[in-house]
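ugh ok fine here u go
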Amino acid sequence: MQFARLNGIVIHHQVIGAAPDRPTIVFANSLGTDYRIWRDVIVRLAGDFGIIAYDKRGHGLSECAEGPITTNDHVNDLAALLDHFNARKVIVCGLSVGGMIAQGLAAIRPDLVRALILCDTGHKIGTPEMWDARISAITEQGIAGISDVILERWFTKAYRSPDNAEFTGYRMMLERSPLEGYLGTCAAIRDSDFTQSSAALQLPVICVVGTEDGSTPPALVGELARLIPGAMYQEIPGAAHLPCIEKPVELTEIIRAFIERLPAA
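structure:
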């Protein structure tokens, strides 16, 4: 395990090196998860690419500062992590709120970002009323009280089998998420709108979505792809909100093909 104190909090992360001439991919995870969701993708890319994965503040083993959490906090944390390693022109692969963080980073620190892989995300996700209702429900019942509803959006029906040990494991990851970090990031997503800044992005982007995603459905991800100039769009059949878990082989192939088409750094 690797830790660094950045912006006044400790950020848990993992760095896997590669040859100096190989690109670095940074993985940013979704709400209620930690960087372990990328494992089956990372093991297929390690060695061919540098890898940086991390737990955003209030998630996994990363600290959560007192007070509200904003998307700017998450963006600045990632920028600080990349500055910590003097990483430049990385490829950021972000899922859900991780994709929003990726969009925000590319907007304010273009020196850090070469390209974006935006998985199951949007320029704006949900409505204030929806997020307020979730915050209220979790405050009253805890994450476990509404986890069934969340998991129905995360995974396909076939994956949500009681006999699937992996599904049980990811349920525990969600239900054991630090409450302060989860609720704070719900509010951060509620208050975030990257419509204008993402429409102004000038870098290679691909938007990827599971066809059965119930959190950020293909219509929303397609809207994001049309918003960003020149962005590509690709669906992954048989996956819901977390294709890195349900369809890691297919997502890895998309990542490799996208990077191979990038202009020389």
